[in-house]
Design brief:
By secondary structure, the protein is of the alpha+beta class. Helix content is 29%, strand content 29%. The chain has a 3-stranded antiparallel β-sheet. The radius of gyration is 13 Å and the shape is globular.
């Protein structure tokens, strides 16, 4: 399991660096935000996973 975690974090680090991205949780408004460069992708929940990654707030 430790190898899987290291592999996942390594791939995530590479993606975040490649796209100048950051993942944030806003606990006051209870939503997650992914910043990709100057663009903001906001989710109405505090969890982002493979099933809901495209369910972002499109406003």
């Amino acid at each position: 399991m430790e190898d899987e975690k290291i592999q996942f974090l390594t791939e995530l680090k590479e993606l975040l660096a490649k796209y100048d991205a950051e993942i944030c949780a806003n606990y006051i408004d209870e939503h997650a935000v992914i910043y990709v460069g100057d663009e903001e992708i906001s989710y109405s929940d505090t969890s982002v996973n493979a099933d809901n990654v495209f369910d972002y707030d499109r406003d």
